[in-house]
Description:
The protein has helices at residues 5-31, 35-61, 72-87, 91-114, 121-148. With 149 residues, the protein is mostly helical. The N and C termini lie far apart (49 Å).
Amino acid sequence: MKFTEKMSNKLNELLEKNYDAEKGYKKAAEKVDNTKLKQFFNEQAQKRYDFGHEIKTEIKNYGKTPEKGGSTKGAIHRTWMDIETAFSSNNEETILGEVQKGEKAAVEEYNEVIKDTTLPPTTQQILTKQRDTIQNAWQSAKNFEAVVS
């Protein structure tokens, strides 16, 4: 199956989002005192790091070049999270709200790419597995929020 430039661009966007999520989760882990929450954030950061490498490998396997770094939109989101947590009376609840927003957006973006009929089956399998893991993280963030609020 041919790997188009358009598909390469879509995967590079997902790659950047995973870089952003990894950085966001690391920052969130630094901001919280709750040990279980800190562990959850660190685990999610590692998963997003791993997702990035899986996507990079897929891009390279089809002869394209993966992007480096994070997106501007992601940097803005992390900055907003920093400001919000600095002024919030309940940092953990606010951070979890931001995580949920980010994960919801990630699931939507993954769904857009996965539904593309030109996506190679192996890439579709990888992205579906990643999307499902992100959905689980989103649900876990909701569960944590109920506990800390």
